[in-house]
Specification:
This is Mn2+-dependent serine/threonine protein kinase. By secondary structure, the protein is α+β, with helices and mostly antiparallel strands. It is 56% helix and 10% strand. Strands 1-2-4-3 form a 4-stranded antiparallel β-sheet, with helices on one face. The chain has a two-stranded antiparallel ribbon with strand order 5-6. A hairpin with a 5-residue loop joins strand 1 and strand 2. The protein is globular, with a radius of gyration of 18 Å.
């Protein structure tokens, strides 16, 4: 969690320190179990957060490395091992999407997916590609929050597929009113931006779909779960994923 501050000249910065709650054991277990369920075997050491200084140092190193190769990430203003101060890179994608009507959301979602494909094609990975960690300043996308030490513990291509899954699932409540076609359109935008990445993604989702569809069928046994908003969103996403895999 970062906190904002504004200088006298109007410049906005963000500060993240080691004095903050880390992921609980229960939350860590949830992250680990979910990742393994969807076929992304992240190491327990990556899911369990116990050393705030190491996490912040890892994020600092990744920000410098990404900036050095021209990727759009916050500029590091200061780091002393305890506090990381970075520049502001615009409003987050989820904030912007919430400001738009459902009909106005899809083009920005597609643009974000295509931008993520380009990021991956350049050999990069995010590890936290939810809409809350992507920004748009009106001209370009940028990425935030690089604490997750997933590589080299996991293969690069596996983490890249996980990035796409994180993005799509984080958009579920915003994309659900638009229906499965919108989910397919977001995935197709990623695939169109880079054909090789798109084929890899299609194979990953084809392998994943039966597991998620099984969850949907089991939940249908409960009237309460079957009519829950969360399950309706999941089913919309699954239908869109199925259309993507089928190439429709």
């Amino acid at each position: 969690m970062s906190s904002p501050s504004t200088a006298v000249d109007g410049t906005r910065t963000w500060t993240k320190t080691t004095d903050r709650p880390l992921r609980s054991w229960r939350k860590s277990a949830g992250v680990w179990l979910f990742a393994h369920f969807v076929g992304v075997p992240i190491p327990w050491a990556a899911a369990r957060q116990t050393d705030a200084r190491a996490l912040l140092a890892h994020e600092h190193e990744r920000l410098l490395a990404l900036a050095a190769v021209g990727e759009h990430v916050p500029h590091v203003i200061g780091f002393d091992g305890h506090t990381l101060v970075t520049s502001d890179v615009g409003p987050t994608l989820d904030h912007l999407l919430f400001q738009r009507t459902p009909e106005e959301r899809l083009p920005l979602m597609q643009a974000a997916a295509a931008d993520l494909a380009g990021f991956h094609a350049r050999g990069q990975w995010h590890g936290g590609a939810q809409a809350r960690n992507i920004t748009w300043d009106g001209e370009r996308f940028a990425r935030l929050d690089f604490e997750e030490p997933l590589v080299p513990g996991l293969a690069l291509d596996m983490v890249q597929r996980y990035d796409v899954l994180q993005l799509v699932l984080s958009l579920a409540r915003l994309i659900e009113p638009l229906g499965p076609g919108a989910v397919n359109a977001v995935l197709q935008a990623y695939a169109t931006a880079d054909a090789a990445q798109g084929e890899a993604l299609r194979g990953f989702i084809a392998h994943l779909l039966p597991r998620l569809q099984r969850v949907s069928r089991i939940a249908a046994w409960s009237r309460r779960l079957d009519t829950s908003r969360e399950l309706m969103r999941l089913r919309t996403v699954l239908a869109g994923m199925a259309a993507f895999v089928a190439g429709r």
